[in-house]
Write a structure and sequence with these properties.
Elements: E1 2-10, E2 13-19, E3 24-29, H1 35-45, E4 61-69, H2 74-82, E5 90-98, E6 103-107, E7 110-112, H3 114-124, E8 125-128, H4 139-150, H5 153-185, H6 187-199, H7 206-218, H8 220-236, H9 241-258, H10 263-289, H11 294-314, H12 318-384, E9 391-397, E10 406-408, E11 411-413, E12 422-428, E13 436-437, H13 444-458, E14 466-469, H14 478-491, E15 496-500, H15 504-507, E16 512-521, E17 524-531, H16 534-546, H17 552-566
Parallel strand pairs: 3-15, 3-16, 8-14, 14-15
Antiparallel strand pairs: 1-2, 1-4, 4-5, 5-6, 6-7, 9-12, 10-11, 12-13, 16-17
Helix pairs in contact: 4-12, 5-12, 6-12, 7-11, 8-10, 9-10, 12-13, 13-14, 16-17
């Protein structure tokens, strides 16, 4: 509930604090006393556009602060958490407006934005002024209000979950289609490159082995001559290295028999002899294996040239070409896999669309049933409120699409975020008139009563805890005024209601009666607000009946109205 409203240096208000009560609060006062100033201040603290002209003359800034209690709303808690504002038992909204035009906003003493104030206010308070289109005049809220009335939250949740699943599948499909398109666009190139590389039968390290073998074949004669010379030097000549070392071994053997200190040198020399012997055998074998093969050399050179050309063409080494070959193989395989995945997701999407369609139809059926009931209730309410010939229609339409996600009875429809219904409230206040959108109803008095009828019908499910009606009595009197008062009284059992009125029948219904009046203080006009006690209240109601001059009969009638209201 709105617990208090503090206003300082705003328009004609110097400084005042208004405390509110649960139930029905009625605000009365003479025309021009400043009732609209209160609504303006409240609008300001709820995030409406501000003007520096509203700062009281001679002051540097205006301050408006609203304290709200017992606001149990997950939306508010989520909003505060997102804005990193501390949640407390009270919700304090504060707006400061400087004479220079700057505006500062606070929520629970934490600096915020005007948008944040407005978001918080939209969740808590529905303020309906005579010339303002509020939540019920916004077609975007009609679906939510109907769902609240129908208590279709489970069906809405099921539909949203099905839609989210479908959208996820469609995103996967689009992503895979994009990949498939990219692969398809490059398929000819991929096939050509892969065929070209496959035809070469590339082997890792082949280029190095070819270089080595070409070098050997090109130098075969030199290798043969050198290995022959080495063999002769080591073994074949009369004074070869081998024969010289063999003679040295014989001499060392004789020396070692006399002096054992030659033993180690004898062993080393024998080892050298063995090394020479092994080298000779290797050289002879190597010489016999030397290949004098011009044909093989030409073949290798041709292969080498092919590899050099392909490496230059692709700008890669042989190892890099083999990696490319593997990549191209993988792309061909992925195209096959993508086709299988695309087929699988297509099937899943078909099944999910069928599931979504069932969920949408279930939700729509429940909405249609609730709509019929809501139409009856609101027309009854409007009749009681003095619009007996009103026609109220809950329009539920659908948008056909050739490729819509929703398919019902062979027709395809667009899927919206909360169903496939387009919901709008239509009204005709007079016989013979075609029902039109609420926002196009011209009469302020009719709008106020339609709003009241709507609020009464939706009272049990409406999540707005505080309802404010400015000039709800425009264009009504007598029996209709009494009906409006009773409706407000009943509605105040479920919501905190604040209403401005000029009619005694409505004022008599108040649980709290506030009177707005102007006075002259220090040669300046000041607007003040007073909470009336029983006697003052009777006089205020009597003044609404008879004007400034209060008569005994008007006082008696005021007392009768208050007594009658107490019995409701």
């Amino acid at each position: 509930m709105l617990f208090s409203l503090y206003i300082k240096n705003y328009a004609l208000i110097q400084e005042l604090t208004i405390e509110f009560h649960p139930g029905l609060t009625i605000i009365t006062g003479e025309t021009g006393a400043g009732k609209s100033i209160l609504i303006g201040a409240l609008n300001l603290v709820l995030g409406e556009r501000a003007s520096s002209d509203l700062v009281r003359s001679g002051s540097t800034k205006a301050v408006i602060e609203a304290v709200l209690k017992e606001i149990h709303s997950e939306k508010i808690d989520s909003l505060l958490r997102a804005a990193e504002v501390e949640t407390t038992p009270e919700l304090i909204l504060r707006r400061e407006l400087s004479s220079g035009g700057q505006s500062r906003c606070f929520i629970n003493d934490t600096p915020g934005t005007v948008a944040l104030l407005k978001q918080a206010g939209d969740v808590i308070i529905d303020l309906h002024g005579q010339h303002e289109h509020q939540m019920l005049l916004n077609t975007e809220t009609h679906e939510t209000l109907l769902d609240d009335f129908a208590r279709s939250a489970p069906e809405v949740t099921a539909y949203k979950a099905a839609l989210a699943e479908l959208q996820e599948l469609q995103q996967q499909l689009n992503r895979l289609k994009k990949e498939a398109a990219e692969i398809h666009d490059k398929k000819d190139i991929v096939d050509f490159q892969l065929n070209e590389l496959n035809s070469l039968d590339l082997k890792s390290g082949e280029d190095e082995s070819i270089d080595t073998e070409i070098s050997l074949l090109e130098n075969a004669e030199a290798l043969f001559g050198l290995s022959t010379s080495l063999s002769e030097l080591l073994y074949d000549n009369e004074h070869s290295v081998y024969s010289s070392i063999a003679s040295g071994v014989q001499i060392l053997e004789k020396l070692a028999k006399i002096d054992r200190r030659f033993d180690i040198h004898l062993e080393e020399t024998r080892t050298a002899k063995s090394i020479i012997d092994e080298l000779v055998r290797f050289t002879r074998s190597y010489r016999s294996d030397i290949d004098f093969n011009p044909g093989r050399l030409d073949s290798l050179r041709e292969r080498q040239l092919k590899l050099q050309r392909i490496c230059k063409k692709y700008g890669r080494t042989l190892s890099g070409l083999i990696d490319l070959q593997n990549e191209l193989d993988a792309k061909i395989a992925s195209e096959i896999n993508l086709e299988e995945e695309l087929s699988s997701i297509d099937q899943q999407i078909t099944l999910q669309k069928a599931y979504l369609s069932r969920a949408a139809e279930t939700l729509s059926v429940k909405r249609h049933q609730a709509a019929q009931h809501l139409e009856t209730i609101i027309q009854q309410q409007l009749a009681e409120l003095g619009i007996p010939d009103a026609t109220f229609i809950v329009s539920i339409a659908h948008e056909e699409q050739v490729e819509g996600e929703i398919s019902i009875e062979g027709n395809n429809f667009a899927a919206f975020s909360s169903g496939y219904d387009r919901i709008e409230f239509l009204i005709s206040a007079n016989p013979g008139e075609k029902p039109r959108p609420l926002a196009k109803v011209a009469s302020g008095g009719e709008i106020s009563r339609i709003m009241l009828a709507m609020k009464s019908a939706l009272a049990g499910s409406d999540r707005l805890p505080i309802l404010i009606f400015d000039e709800i009595d425009t264009g009504i009197s007598g029996r209709v005024a009494e009906a409006v008062g009773k409706s407000l009284k009943k509605l105040s059992r479920l919501h905190q209601i604040i209403a401005i009125t000029h009619l005694p029948q409505i004022a008599a219904m108040a649980d709290l009666h506030l009177q707005v009046q102007k006075s002259l203080q220090n040669d300046r006009t000041v607007t003040e607000v007073t909470a009336l006690d029983h006697e003052s209240r009777l006089q205020a109601i009597a003044r609404l009946i008879s004007g400034k001059e209060i008569s005994a009969s008007s006082l008696n009638l005021a007392a009768e109205l208050v007594a009658a209201a107490a019995s409701i």
